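Ticket #4471: structure export looks truncated?
Reporter: QA, pipeline team
Priority: medium

Steps to reproduce: submit the single chain below to the structure queue and open the exported record.
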Amino acid sequence: MASWAKYFVIHAGLYYGPTSLKTRLCLTGKSLLYAFCARHNIPHSNCGKWIVAQTPAQLAELDKVHAFADSIGVPTHFLSTAEAASREPSVRADAGVLVSPTTGIVDSHALMAQLEGEFQARGGETAYRTAVTGLEKSAPGAPGAGGYTITTTSPDSPATTITAETLVNSAGLAAVPVSNMLLPPPRHLTPYYAKGSYFSYSSPRPTPLPSTLVYPAPSPGHGGLGTHLTLDMAGRVRFGPDVEWVDDPTDLAPNPSRLSEALDEIETYLPGLEREKVGLDYCGIRPKLGKMGAVASGKGFQDFVIRREEGFEGFVNCLGIESPGLTSCLAIGEMVGGMV
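Actual output as written to the record:
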């Protein structure tokens, strides 16, 4: 997700089906990421997550998540309503709680700074505020023939041409437009953008505030995982993201009309919420390949697309890298490295 968020969730891999890239890369990436953060002193916390059910139907969804987690070797366990009330008295879970002990949070800015430093130490160069405006196969006999010619522009310089034998398209929100510059029209895709608003909370009540992440039960076919409660490293609470389909990938302005619906959803699991202390905070946008669900149990689930493109030797496309993309990032890097 493209956003100003500093803390992101390290996902356990509970939602993405038995054979998907999302599951495989999330499970591998989670282990790599925890080890990488520990090795480089990147702020992170294995704080765990509660998924809460308020109705028998929602509890049935938790049963499915638990059974799937068991089938792929990811630990989860149920709490009774009495035990849940004792541990987190401010959290409502009328039908049950499924605990995911391997979920956590990470300081994404510190993670990116570490990765950038390692990239530069190996001779890599980063061009900030630079847009790809053209991409084509290099002409026979031209510099870089057999590879690709990339045209870029930036506010501080005119158009610049780069040639490369190997090209990895990992442009996030711009990945589909970049792919469409190179591939023939019959292989073009349409990008979709799922905007997510986050909400700040300035009250210490209900007391005590939860000490774990809290998610509503998954809703099959929904574009996200519900407006959940997240924490930062200091234990401060935020809520989000929700899902709002937008046409503009640069539309990162918080939308006041989203607040009321979010408050209603939050109150289902945090009934002591002081609504007036919740405010708009920041937004992010997920790169989607369709208006599809975020969990494999619903219709229209969309997996990551990471592939070589037929007829374009040395070109690897990484499309639809939304959640759990950050959790999976090191595993994605290993996979792509093996493809080029």
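Status: closed, not a bug. The export was complete when the record was re-opened. Leaving a note from the reviewer for reference: The chain has a mean pLDDT of 92.
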